[in-house]
Write a structure and sequence with these properties.
about 425 residues, alpha/beta, 19 helices, about 10% strand, binds D-fructuronic acid, binds zinc ion
């Protein structure tokens, strides 16, 4: 259990401050927290999943699960295969290699490998299989629409927010088509290519009929705003979002700085849309590893506080990739009520680090934050990512309630339910509500 042990409570049988429906002892409190947290419906505010209507962009099954970039990076630590050789292999052969390297020849201890084990075990598949034949047969026999229901049910995810790139050809086709997108999937308009690579993005924006130029003159800014307006009308995103490098500053003398100030922030203001800032990624630290080659760096939180201070009428969803930035993010959130910290992103999505960050957030922010998003890229990952996160969040929440009890107040079941609802869905829903 946690720092607050059962023993501490045994001498405190008559603790006051108990509301109706409060647990009688600490074991019961623990059971209540576990039950409520493990079943609370989730709105997953940042994923890379796609609704079924997006066809091949929507990924699931064992070969996709194993070809997750977290696992690809880990595989290179255990084999002599070079990145060039790996990328030349067929997808099924890559999956076979990853399975052999990380699950047969070695013990799957990492968060990402344990995740695959958790998925296989939940689905009743052999977690010690010598090869992938059983798993492949299982997934081949699933009907995609039934499988989606099954995963959502197991993971208790009610809503999924996608990451939608308005410059992606495959996505554009779907957005321009007339097929209705599954209502459980929501859009988030992602601005990475526009903000972090304007020189390459400008011709693509141009191709869509907006008269922008690389030098970002006044007309380009107006046309970029028109581009964003049109995509907002098409996607109906819940928010606009961008990932930013660790050296991100604000204000910034750069195309990104100009675009944020003159196009993105005014658009957020006009449409009453939040801007998600995901800060601290160092893209392509090892380019040979492609998507698996990104790293991180400690960023400057004051860039975010400056944006929040200068734009009090705009709401910001903020996550930092570096562990070192987390305490400062909590402090910044106490100062700016237009800042909503969210998630334990990517390299932070590990039991030990979630435990630390979530405890710190409860201590500094009460329940006024969003503890987690899955960042899932493959549907099946919802099963383990949410299961793992729920366990860590339940530990941190129980510990906070135990501390509160120690100070003289016992939470009721209704209060635990209210807190769980805020943490897993309500805080996000109200943040993006218009
Ligand atoms: O920028 C992002 O949204 C990142 O989450 C991804 O690009 C990253 O590759 C990822 O999958 C992390 O979980
Ligand atoms: Zn992501």
């Amino acid at each position: 259990m946690s720092n607050f042990t059962v023993k501490q409570f045994e001498n405190q049988a008559s603790a006051d401050g108990a509301g109706a429906g409060a647990a009688h002892d600490v074991h019961e409190l623990r059971r209540q927290v576990d039950e409520i947290i493990s079943t609370a419906p989730v709105v997953d505010l940042h994923t890379h999943l796609f609704a079924p209507q997006f066809g091949e962009l929507s990924l699931w099954g064992i070969d996709e699960l194993l070809n997750y970039h977290y696992l690809i990076a880990e595989m290179f630590r255990f084999t002599d295969v070079s990145p060039d050789e790996f990328w030349r292999m067929e997808r099924w052969a890559q999956a076979d290699l990853i399975w052999r390297a990380l699950f047969v020849e070695n013990t799957p201890l990492s968060e990402a490998t344990r995740g695959v084990i958790a998925v296989l075990s939940t689905l009743g598949l052999n977690t010690r299989a010598e090869d992938l034949s059983e798993a492949r047969d299982f997934f081949a026999s699933q009907k995609p629409e039934n499988y989606l229901e099954k995963v959502l049910q197991i993971s208790r995810v009610s809503d999924i927010v996608m990451t939608n790139d308005p410059l992606d050809e495959a996505e554009i086709k779907v957005w321009n088509g007339d097929e209705k997108i599954d209502e459980r999937f929501h859009a988030a308009l992602r601005l990475d290519r526009i903000l972090n690579g304007w020189t390459e993005a400008a011709p693509l924006v141009n191709k869509q009929g907006y008269k922008v130029s690389v030098d970002l003159d006044e007309r380009s800014i107006g046309e970029t705003r028109r581009f964003l307006d049109d995509w907002i009308a098409k996607m109906k995103p819940l928010y606009l979002g961008v990932s930013l490098p660790d050296d991100f500053t604000f204000p910034e003398e750069s195309p990104r700085g100009k675009l944020i100030k003159e196009a993105v922030l005014p658009t957020c203001r006009e449409h009453n849309l939040s801007l998600a800032l995901m800060v601290g990624v160092r893209r392509r630290v090892n380019p040979a590893l492609k998507l698996a080659g990104d790293g991180l760096g400690c960023a400057d939180v004051s860039a975010v506080t400056r944006i929040c201070a200068e734009n009090p009428e705009i709401k910001f969803l903020v996550t930092f990739l570096s562990r070192e930035n987390q305490h400062e993010l909590c402090v910044a959130s106490r100062k700016f009520s237009n800042l909503m910290p969210f998630g334990c992103w990517w390299f932070l999505n590990n039991t030990s680090i979630i435990a630390e960050i979530t405890r710190e957030r409860f201590e500094m922010l009460g329940t006024s934050f969003i503890p987690q998003h899955s960042d899932a890229r493959i549907l099946d990952q919802l099963i383990y990512k949410w299961n793992h996160s729920r366990l860590s969040i339940a530990d941190a929440l129980f510990e906070s309630y135990a501390a509160l009890w120690h100070d003289g107040r016992r939470v009721t079941q209704a209060e635990i339910k209210r807190d769980a609802e805020k943490l897993f869905s309500g805080n996000f829903r109200s943040w993006v509500a218009k």
